Amino acid sequence: MGNIQFLYPNVLWALLLLGIPIIVHLFKLRRFKKTPFTNVKFLEKVVSETNKTSQIKKWLLLISRLGMLTFLILAFAQPFTATESALVTKEYTVYLDNSFSMEAPGKQNDLLQEAIQDLAQHFPQEQKLSFFTNDQTYRDVSFQEIRSVVLQTTSNPEALNFEDVLLKAQTLFSKHNGVQKELILISDFQGPMTPVENDSTTNLNVYTVPKTATETLNVSIDSLYVLENGPQETALRLNLQANGAIREVGVTVQDGDRLLAKSLLDFEENSLEQQLDFKIKNGTGIQGQVSIRDGGLPYDNQLFFSTGQSEKIKVLHIQQGDADYLDRIYDNNTFTLTKTALDQLNYSALYEQNFVFLQGLERIPNTLVEALIQAQENGTGIGIIPPSQPDLASYDTFLTKLGFGSLDQQLNDEQEISSIRFNHPLFKGVFEKNEENFQFPKTNGYLKLKSPPSTVIGFSNGSPFLSESNGVYFFHAPLNPPYSNFSASPLIVPTLYNMGWQSIRANPLYTVMTPGNYMDIGGTYPEETIISLTQEELRFIPRQQYMGNKIRLFYDENPQSPGLYQTDAPQLPAKTVAYNYARSESLENNAIEFKGTSSSETVAGLIELLNQDNRINQLWKWFLIVTLCFVILEVLIQKLIK
Predict the structure, then answer these.
(1) Above 90 in pLDDT, residue 304?
(2) Which end of the chain has fewer beta carbons closer than 10 Å to its terminal beta carbon, N or C?
């Protein structure tokens, strides 16, 4: 506490009025009346005693009246004592962390609900403040005005680090100099919160109310992805993670009410990651949900996914010369094969194809080169089969732009095709074992690259017969007789079939709800198509981009809840897409300790701490009591001293 100060110091000028009673008592302004008395001796004695008593009474009355007036004036000036911080103007900003980690169990409820009730019950209702969470902001309001908003706060997928919180708080404080800024953080302090020390140059005090979970063990469904995509069925792999040892965690995978997989998993200290593999049949369309049950955070106990119904793969054959082997491979059940000559090519159709074959073109015009590069960037696969006498300059430009490097020369040497890269995705699952006694075909010449990329099938001299770069396949020799007998080889069927099959870009199993993420919806759409997403009565239009053979849907703010949603576009079949929360807070279990901050376990305790710093001791009541004492003293003097 500091020295005594006055709320109204100008009142102290009234102390000058103390001169009035002093003047009255020092100058005898009383008039005396003469009374005849016969006994002079007795009279002298009475006068002497009366003068002494009168003098004492006058001085006592003077002191009591001066004291009464002095303390009365001081009381009206309202004296008080306070700390230095109590006299500074303060602004309060409260941050309530409503990230998913605050869903952890507390003593009576989850941490977020405990924090909300603590804040609503103990924060001063009339106190002006700014208040913000991860998704809401209120500036310069009384707590009473936003009390209902605080009570309705729910968890949010966004998590802020301390730098984000500090920058947000600084925008809510005023720019006035001499104002003490008080920032109150209510959080479990999980994740990327960086320790901070108070900076006296910013007039910012940081107060923390750390919330501690009673259960820190948590199991999270981390991800689900395609392990292997075959013509008949697809293998999926589910990844789960835990932040500590926990046994017998039940996992179920369902398609609606139909059970797809079920298992019990144990997480040990040396194996905190577990996997569950299962298969689904292609073409059925799965609206799936993975569920687990643990005692930790609930938001990561579900994962939604979807697989679409099979659609025919579109293959465009741009030909110059005969190639009937493509008709035999790309049957009508799985593929839709379209043939066209180069001079009859509809360039807009390129962007709607899953795979494009260039067969026997002596020269590739620049317009086709640019169109194919654009289609390839949009996900279209490309296969190139050269003629026996190609325009080397044209092919050199085309192959260089596609990432194959430049052509070296055209050789007319006979070469045997003698090596297969069995572990390449093109042949995955085709051969039960590496074939050594395979009857390999031959060619009568080939095009040699200076620095070929990945070799899929090779010649006996080590040069590639089939090379691949980013989904583009280049045969270094013609496939038809008399230049090659590859078209009659059994190897042509899995090679060309898988080129077309693997060109299909299946819709993603799900999209993580992080701003900037997107999913591609494959299919044939008119350019003016606008896709809406629906779920029961909810409908919204996401930001989207037309890309020929697919439409890209971006995640910005909607949907706000994970789940399965249906696409809706005029005169087009509906598809199911899935959205899930990011798992960024699933494995955190160590709260950050902030340095240089005042802390309390509850809001009530923090308010008491702030009140101690802001406490002002009013003294006017005591001064008024002393004034009354002087009044009583004067009455007693008047009664007791005659």
Answers:
(1) yes
(2) C
